[in-house]
Amino acid sequence: MNYFNKLFSCGLLTFSLSASLAFADSVENTIKKNLTDRLPQLPRIDEITKSPMNGLYEVRLDETEIYYTDAEGNFLIQGNLIDTRSRKNLTEERVDKLLSVSFDSLPLKDAFTMVRGNGRRKIAVFEDPNCGYCKRFERDLQKIDNITIYLFLYPILSADSMEKSKNIWCAKDKSKIWQDWMLKGQTPASISCESSAMLRNLEYGKKHKISGTPTILLADGTRVPGAIEARELEKLLMDMK
User: Which residues, at least 6 apart from 158, have a Cβ–Cβ distance to it below 8 Å?
Assistant: First the structure.
């Protein structure tokens, strides 16, 4: 290929890329305008991207809500996009990725730590002291060894949840008082101290859409909502190796 042919080919490639980008912007603008005009009650649109399915576009709202639409925003679909070849729920995978939290970014000063064995494996857990599922999870958690647990008190169920959380946080041995309550039903003694960590935990959870307890965060950022059994947690921890 001579010099002029190379220039011509490079010019075509540049033009093609520019045209593709312009078309993508045009489609995105059309979708955003039509959806916004026709559905004024719709939350703010954060992002519009092509989905893995031809002709279908992902519309991301309110940071983590996923919808789908056509190239003109004439239809809006709410539901899961399933890849039948791999048998994967692509919508669920996408939301999990959006909800992932960098473990290094966790405000660990607002948690207390429990270490078992060598403590090599790490998880963070957001729990409400009045949550029945949390108590069940705590019983299963006793079966896990060689783990460090960062426990974030997350009192979202009631005013009593906040009171108990403050009493646990203010205790000299937080871990013991926590487990005495969760596993044995021994009510924490009333103690006063600086407990603004509870409010910071609530704010952090709201920001990251932690809406239920327990919510488990693995070291790789994966979020696990709800109580899981010891064998399930062991498998997740093994898969992270």
Answer: 130
